[in-house]
């Protein structure tokens, strides 16, 4: 019984790992860092059922770890603006129509060349 349970846990863990690998491969792209300097543009959108919801769109200059810049446009997917002066790690994929994901990071997590450009 223990061997069956251990085997089942291993199979589930392997399937989860494979799923995460595939997800990251499809969503992957180039990493840029931005600092939120505006409240963003408030936009009203509709979901698949026709229900309206509020979102914020940002156009910010991002910098990679070498300090190279790129103009980035993305939506926050939140009903309130992002925190001003927050640093974001943004994934840009030209094959997937731009920014595919973002996450807030600390200033220490921003590479030095990107941080120099952002300040």
From TrEMBL:
Annotated TM spans: none
UniProt signal peptide: none
Gene3D superfamilies: 2.40.50.480
SUPFAM superfamilies, sorted: BC4932-like
Pfam families for this protein: DUF1093
Protein name: Amino acid ABC transporter ATP-binding protein
Protein species of origin: Enterococcus dispar ATCC 51266
């Amino acid at each position: 019984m223990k061997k069956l349970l251990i085997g089942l846990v291993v199979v589930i863990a392997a399937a989860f790992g494979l799923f995460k690998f595939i997800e990251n491969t499809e969503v992957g792209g180039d990493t840029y860092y931005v600092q939120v300097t505006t409240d963003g543009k408030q936009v009203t959108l509709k979901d698949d059922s026709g229900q309206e919801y509020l979102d914020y769109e940002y156009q910010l200059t991002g910098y990679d770890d070498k300090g190279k810049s790129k103009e980035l446009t993305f939506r926050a997917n939140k009903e309130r603006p992002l925190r001003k002066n927050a640093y974001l790690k943004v994934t840009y994929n030209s094959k997937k129509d731009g920014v595919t994901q973002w996450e807030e990071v600390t200033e220490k997590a921003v590479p030095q060349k990107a941080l120099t450009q952002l300040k």
